[in-house]
Amino acid sequence: MDTDTALYRLLTWTSPSYPTGAFSYSHGLEWAVEAGDVRDVATLVDYIDAVLARGGGWIDAVLFARAYECAHDATAFDEIADLAAAFRGSSETALESHQQGAAFLAVTRKAWPHARLDAFAERRGDAPVAHSIAMALACAAHAIPLQPALSAWLHATAANLVSAGVRLIPLGQTDGQIATARLAPRIAAIAAEALETPLIELGTAAPLLELCSIQHETQYTRLFRS
Asked: 33, 51, 155, 204: which could form a disulfide with 168 (CB 3.0–4.6 Å)?
Protein backbone atom coordinates (compact mmCIF):
# COMPACT_ATOMS: atom_id res chain seq x y z
CA MET A 1 0.00 0.00 0.00
CA ASP A 2 1.33 3.47 -0.82
CA THR A 3 1.90 5.98 1.97
CA ASP A 4 -0.97 8.30 1.03
CA THR A 5 -3.53 5.47 1.03
CA ALA A 6 -2.31 4.12 4.36
CA LEU A 7 -2.38 7.59 5.92
CA TYR A 8 -5.90 8.22 4.65
CA ARG A 9 -7.21 5.04 6.23
CA LEU A 10 -5.39 5.66 9.50
CA LEU A 11 -6.73 9.21 9.76
CA THR A 12 -10.23 7.98 8.96
CA TRP A 13 -10.22 5.20 11.56
CA THR A 14 -8.99 7.53 14.32
CA SER A 15 -11.21 10.47 13.38
CA PRO A 16 -13.90 11.59 15.86
CA SER A 17 -16.36 11.13 12.99
CA TYR A 18 -15.71 7.38 12.77
CA PRO A 19 -18.91 5.84 14.19
CA THR A 20 -17.57 4.06 17.27
CA GLY A 21 -19.35 6.27 19.81
CA ALA A 22 -16.10 7.36 21.46
CA PHE A 23 -17.61 10.79 22.22
CA SER A 24 -19.92 9.21 24.79
CA TYR A 25 -17.16 7.85 27.07
CA SER A 26 -14.86 9.63 29.54
CA HIS A 27 -12.91 6.75 31.12
CA GLY A 28 -13.82 7.89 34.65
CA LEU A 29 -12.89 11.51 33.96
CA GLU A 30 -16.42 12.70 34.68
CA TRP A 31 -16.12 11.57 38.28
CA ALA A 32 -12.63 13.05 38.65
CA VAL A 33 -14.02 16.42 37.58
CA GLU A 34 -16.95 16.20 40.01
CA ALA A 35 -14.58 15.23 42.82
CA GLY A 36 -12.42 18.27 42.07
CA ASP A 37 -9.33 16.27 41.18
CA VAL A 38 -9.37 17.47 37.56
CA ARG A 39 -10.10 21.19 37.34
CA ASP A 40 -7.73 22.84 34.83
CA VAL A 41 -5.33 22.14 31.97
CA ALA A 42 -2.54 20.84 34.21
CA THR A 43 -4.70 18.34 36.09
CA LEU A 44 -6.41 17.22 32.87
CA VAL A 45 -3.02 16.49 31.31
CA ASP A 46 -1.98 14.59 34.45
CA TYR A 47 -5.14 12.46 34.30
CA ILE A 48 -4.75 11.62 30.62
CA ASP A 49 -1.05 10.90 31.08
CA ALA A 50 -1.93 8.43 33.82
CA VAL A 51 -4.42 6.68 31.51
CA LEU A 52 -1.84 6.40 28.74
CA ALA A 53 1.23 5.55 30.80
CA ARG A 54 -0.18 3.42 33.64
CA GLY A 55 -3.86 2.71 32.96
CA GLY A 56 -6.10 1.33 30.27
CA GLY A 57 -4.33 3.29 27.55
CA TRP A 58 -1.05 1.56 28.36
CA ILE A 59 -2.69 -1.87 28.35
CA ASP A 60 -4.25 -1.12 24.97
CA ALA A 61 -0.98 0.17 23.54
CA VAL A 62 0.97 -2.99 24.37
CA LEU A 63 -1.85 -5.30 23.30
CA PHE A 64 -2.24 -3.31 20.08
CA ALA A 65 1.44 -3.81 19.23
CA ARG A 66 1.57 -7.49 20.09
CA ALA A 67 -1.75 -8.23 18.30
CA TYR A 68 -0.58 -6.42 15.17
CA GLU A 69 2.57 -8.54 15.07
CA CYS A 70 0.66 -11.83 15.13
CA ALA A 71 -2.32 -10.80 12.99
CA HIS A 72 -1.30 -13.46 10.44
CA ASP A 73 -1.58 -16.22 13.10
CA ALA A 74 -5.24 -16.75 14.01
CA THR A 75 -4.51 -18.83 17.13
CA ALA A 76 -2.01 -16.39 18.61
CA PHE A 77 -4.14 -13.39 17.67
CA ASP A 78 -7.26 -14.86 19.28
CA GLU A 79 -5.36 -15.47 22.52
CA ILE A 80 -4.41 -11.80 22.68
CA ALA A 81 -7.99 -10.84 21.80
CA ASP A 82 -9.21 -12.88 24.79
CA LEU A 83 -6.67 -11.18 27.07
CA ALA A 84 -7.63 -7.72 25.81
CA ALA A 85 -11.33 -8.39 26.33
CA ALA A 86 -10.70 -9.38 29.96
CA PHE A 87 -8.07 -6.77 30.86
CA ARG A 88 -10.39 -4.14 32.35
CA GLY A 89 -10.71 -2.93 35.91
CA SER A 90 -14.39 -1.94 35.96
CA SER A 91 -17.64 -2.71 34.19
CA GLU A 92 -17.77 0.71 32.53
CA THR A 93 -14.27 0.60 31.07
CA ALA A 94 -15.12 -2.87 29.75
CA LEU A 95 -18.31 -1.48 28.20
CA GLU A 96 -16.31 1.40 26.70
CA SER A 97 -13.80 -0.91 25.03
CA HIS A 98 -16.18 -3.65 23.96
CA GLN A 99 -18.88 -1.44 22.44
CA GLN A 100 -16.35 0.61 20.52
CA GLY A 101 -14.61 -2.57 19.41
CA ALA A 102 -17.81 -4.09 18.10
CA ALA A 103 -18.74 -0.86 16.31
CA PHE A 104 -15.28 -0.46 14.80
CA LEU A 105 -15.20 -4.02 13.52
CA ALA A 106 -18.70 -3.85 12.04
CA VAL A 107 -18.19 -0.51 10.28
CA THR A 108 -14.71 -1.32 9.01
CA ARG A 109 -15.79 -4.66 7.56
CA LYS A 110 -18.41 -2.83 5.47
CA ALA A 111 -16.45 0.27 4.46
CA TRP A 112 -12.92 -1.19 4.32
CA PRO A 113 -13.48 -4.95 3.84
CA HIS A 114 -10.76 -7.54 4.25
CA ALA A 115 -10.82 -11.32 4.57
CA ARG A 116 -8.92 -11.24 7.89
CA LEU A 117 -11.54 -9.00 9.46
CA ASP A 118 -14.33 -11.29 8.27
CA ALA A 119 -12.53 -14.40 9.50
CA PHE A 120 -11.91 -12.88 12.92
CA ALA A 121 -15.53 -11.77 13.27
CA GLU A 122 -16.71 -15.26 12.37
CA ARG A 123 -14.34 -16.89 14.88
CA ARG A 124 -15.27 -14.38 17.58
CA GLY A 125 -19.02 -14.76 17.30
CA ASP A 126 -20.71 -12.98 20.21
CA ALA A 127 -17.55 -12.78 22.35
CA PRO A 128 -16.45 -9.25 23.23
CA VAL A 129 -13.83 -7.53 21.10
CA ALA A 130 -11.59 -4.82 22.56
CA HIS A 131 -11.40 -1.68 20.44
CA SER A 132 -7.61 -1.75 20.35
CA ILE A 133 -7.60 -5.31 19.01
CA ALA A 134 -10.10 -4.55 16.26
CA MET A 135 -8.08 -1.59 15.05
CA ALA A 136 -4.76 -3.42 15.30
CA LEU A 137 -6.15 -6.16 13.07
CA ALA A 138 -7.50 -3.65 10.56
CA CYS A 139 -4.15 -1.85 10.40
CA ALA A 140 -2.23 -5.09 9.94
CA ALA A 141 -4.68 -6.41 7.35
CA HIS A 142 -4.46 -3.21 5.32
CA ALA A 143 -0.65 -3.00 5.62
CA ILE A 144 -0.53 0.19 7.66
CA PRO A 145 2.86 0.26 9.46
CA LEU A 146 2.77 -0.50 13.17
CA GLN A 147 4.60 2.53 14.54
CA PRO A 148 2.32 5.22 13.05
CA ALA A 149 -0.74 3.05 13.69
CA LEU A 150 0.09 2.78 17.38
CA SER A 151 0.89 6.49 17.68
CA ALA A 152 -2.43 7.32 16.03
CA TRP A 153 -4.26 4.98 18.40
CA LEU A 154 -2.75 6.69 21.45
CA HIS A 155 -3.41 10.15 20.03
CA ALA A 156 -7.06 9.28 19.41
CA THR A 157 -7.40 8.04 22.98
CA ALA A 158 -5.87 11.23 24.33
CA ALA A 159 -7.91 13.46 22.01
CA ASN A 160 -11.16 11.86 23.14
CA LEU A 161 -10.29 12.49 26.79
CA VAL A 162 -9.23 16.08 26.05
CA SER A 163 -12.58 16.63 24.34
CA ALA A 164 -14.38 15.20 27.38
CA GLY A 165 -12.36 17.45 29.68
CA VAL A 166 -13.14 20.54 27.63
CA ARG A 167 -16.84 19.85 28.06
CA LEU A 168 -16.75 18.74 31.70
CA ILE A 169 -14.43 21.16 33.52
CA PRO A 170 -15.21 23.20 31.34
CA LEU A 171 -12.25 24.54 29.36
CA GLY A 172 -12.04 26.68 26.26
CA GLN A 173 -10.98 25.20 22.96
CA THR A 174 -7.59 26.88 23.19
CA ASP A 175 -6.93 25.22 26.54
CA GLY A 176 -7.94 21.92 24.98
CA GLN A 177 -5.33 22.35 22.28
CA ILE A 178 -2.72 23.33 24.88
CA ALA A 179 -3.46 20.05 26.68
CA THR A 180 -3.11 18.14 23.40
CA ALA A 181 0.21 19.84 22.67
CA ARG A 182 1.57 19.01 26.13
CA LEU A 183 0.67 15.36 25.67
CA ALA A 184 2.48 15.01 22.31
CA PRO A 185 5.95 14.09 23.68
CA ARG A 186 4.40 11.71 26.18
CA ILE A 187 2.48 9.90 23.44
CA ALA A 188 5.68 9.48 21.45
CA ALA A 189 7.54 8.09 24.47
CA ILE A 190 4.70 5.76 25.50
CA ALA A 191 4.35 4.41 21.96
CA ALA A 192 8.08 3.72 21.77
CA GLU A 193 8.01 1.87 25.10
CA ALA A 194 4.91 -0.13 24.18
CA LEU A 195 6.56 -1.33 20.98
CA GLU A 196 9.32 -2.92 23.08
CA THR A 197 7.19 -4.34 25.93
CA PRO A 198 6.44 -8.11 25.82
CA LEU A 199 3.13 -9.45 27.08
CA ILE A 200 4.82 -11.11 30.04
CA GLU A 201 5.71 -7.65 31.39
CA LEU A 202 2.28 -6.14 30.84
CA GLY A 203 0.58 -4.64 33.88
CA THR A 204 -0.83 -1.45 35.38
CA ALA A 205 -0.68 0.52 38.60
CA ALA A 206 -3.39 3.15 38.45
CA PRO A 207 -5.84 2.44 41.28
CA LEU A 208 -7.21 6.00 41.38
CA LEU A 209 -8.28 5.72 37.75
CA GLU A 210 -10.14 2.50 38.51
CA LEU A 211 -11.78 4.10 41.55
CA CYS A 212 -12.92 7.04 39.42
CA SER A 213 -14.50 4.61 36.98
CA ILE A 214 -16.20 2.66 39.77
CA GLN A 215 -17.53 5.85 41.37
CA HIS A 216 -18.87 6.97 38.00
CA GLU A 217 -21.12 3.91 37.86
CA THR A 218 -23.33 5.42 40.57
CA GLN A 219 -22.75 9.13 39.90
CA TYR A 220 -26.03 11.01 40.28
CA THR A 221 -25.77 13.19 37.16
CA ARG A 222 -23.80 11.89 34.18
CA LEU A 223 -23.07 13.13 30.67
CA PHE A 224 -20.89 10.15 29.70
CA ARG A 225 -21.27 6.37 29.74
CA SER A 226 -17.96 5.75 31.52
From this structure: 33
- Residue 96 is classified by DSSP as H
Cβ within 8 Å of residue 124, ≥6 positions away: 78, 81
Phi-psi region of 143 (alpha: psi -120 to 50; beta: other; left: phi over 0): left
Q: How far apart are CA 148 and CA 167, in angstroms?
A: 28
The pLDDT, as a whole number, for residue 89 is 87
Report the alpha-carbon distance of residue 15 to residue 21 in Å, rounded: 11
Q: Is the peptide bond before 170 cis (omega within 30 degrees of 0)?
A: yes
Give 35-45 pLDDT, tens digit per residue: 999 999 999 99
* Interhelix angle 56-69/74-86, nearest 10 degrees: 170
